[in-house]
Amino acid sequence: MAMSRLPLVDRTLTEFFRELLQSAMRTQEVQLREETEFYLVTLLEKFARTERDWFDRPLGLEYLESFHDPLVHRVGKLKRVGDTALFVSGLFMESLHRKLVSADYYMQVGREAYSHLSGLSGVGAGSGDLFAELAERFGEFVSILAEISFERFFAGDVHTLRVYTRWMYTQNDRDARWLMRQGLIPCVPPTRRQH
After folding, report:
1. Burial class (CB in 10 A: 0-12, 13-18, 19+), 52
2. Shortest CA distance to 170 belongs to which of 195, 147, 193?
3. Which of 23, 66, 132, 153 has its Cβ near the most Cβ atoms within 10 Å?
């Protein structure tokens, strides 16, 4: 008797990431325009199939070089910097805490790249409104991607530390409430200044 083969996956990668994104948006209580939601789903898809050398060059170098490139190349580099910074700071925030370059750095570089892209709309950069929104709400988008990471990709016994770390960078009210339900009062540690 021949067994019929059932498909291993009955939905596309786009549908999978869209469901994850919409679930995280509900959890984080964030509303997105359709264009922005589509952009974030596409970003997740892109990194699911990224080239091996995507992370070889420092983002700061790519960012600075973009200003010396012809406009067409500048748009591509700035988009790559913004997208990479958003992806890394959203999905891997906790691991950045132990690196030379912090999540703050990634978030700032990402905001700046998207901000510059918003000013280049009409010259191959796409919608200036989209990139302005990505720059202005960068922290919210990091929270959404961090929620996906937290709930779906890297769940484990370190949930509390992950939420606290995410809260330190985003100051998200939902994360603060979650921490307080766990018996923790979130507070930002004082900065160390050396004179």
Report:
1. exposed
2. 147
3. 66
Q: Helix or strand or coil: residue 123?
A: coil
- What is the rounded distance in angstroms from the CA atom of residue 95 to the CA atom of residue 88? 9
Structure token pair of residue 177:
């409430």
For residue 109, with 0-12 CB atoms within 10 Å meaning exposed, 13-18 middle and 19 or more buried, which class applies?
A: buried
Whether the CA torsion 48, 49, 52, 58 is positive or negative: it is negative
Task: State the Cα–Cα distance between residues 183 and 178, nearest whole angstrom.
Answer: 9
Q: Rounded to two decimals, what is the model's pTM?
A: 0.71
| DSSP category for residue 185 | -
CA quadruple 61, 67, 71, 75: dihedral positive or negative? positive
pLDDT tens digits, 65-100: 999 988 888 888 999 999 999 998 888 776 665 566
Q: Are 107 and 55 in contact (CB under 8 A)?
A: no
Q: Is 137 exposed, middle or buried (0-12, 13-18, 19+ CB in 10 A)?
A: middle
